[in-house]
Amino acid sequence: MNEQLDRHLKAVAGTMGGFLRGFDNPRVHVGSADLFVKEFRKVLDHPALHLPDGNQVVSYAAAAGSYRVPADAAAAAKPDNPISALLRGLNESAPFTTHARHLLQPAPLRADLAALLRVPVLLFYLQVTDTAAFFARLAIIAEQEAFPLAAGSGESTARGGYCPACGARCFPDALGSGIQRCASCGKALEVVRSLPLVSGAGCMVSYELLRRMVALDLVVSYQEEGNIRPLQPGSTIS
Fold first, then answer.
1. pTM over 0.90
2. Residue 45 domain boundaries
C-alpha cells in the first residue's frame, strides 16, 4: 500500500470518529484522534467486502486501492452516516492509485459495509455513572437491534455464560485477544464487562454497538484501549 493511500485510509477512519458523541470533546472522548484511527484500522483491515465474482472477500483497505463504485452512487451518498462515508471514501481514494479499478455495485456493497461495522474488533473503555443502569440499557439495545451481546462482570463472563445467538454455553477469552466467537455456532460476540473498583466497562465491540453505547447519557467518557493486550477478566484500566 502506498503512503498516500495509507494517509487517505487514516482520514476515512478519522471521519468515522466524527459519528461518535463527543469525539472532539476531550472530556468525553479522553483518548485521542490518532489512537482512534489506529483502533479503527482494525475494522478497515477486516476482510468483509465481496468481490463481483462472489467467491472472494477483501478488506476495505484493499478495496480502496483496487475498486470503486459508480460515480453517481458515490455522489448521491452524502456523508451523513457511517456507511455513506465509507462508500464515498472508496471513490475518494482514486487519486492515490495508479491502475484501473474494478467496479463494485452499491447495493451489495452497502450490505457488506453494514455487516463490517458490526464486527466486534474494537477495544474500548467506558466510564459510566451507574453500572447497573448502563447494562440494563445495553441489554435493551442488544435485544432491539440484534447485537449478539455477552455482558456481565469480568468474573461472570470468565466463568461462562450462554451465547445470545444460539444459547450454547460460551466462555469469552480475555478482552484484546481477538474477536470473541461462540464455540458452538461461531457467531462473533459483542463482549462488555464491568470492572471492579471503578464505574466502568471494558468492551470488545463493533463500531455500531460502540456508537450506540457512547450516545447514552450514562456514559461519562470513553477511550480506545487497543494498546492493552490482553485485558484479563477482573483487571482494571488505569
1. no
2. 3-116
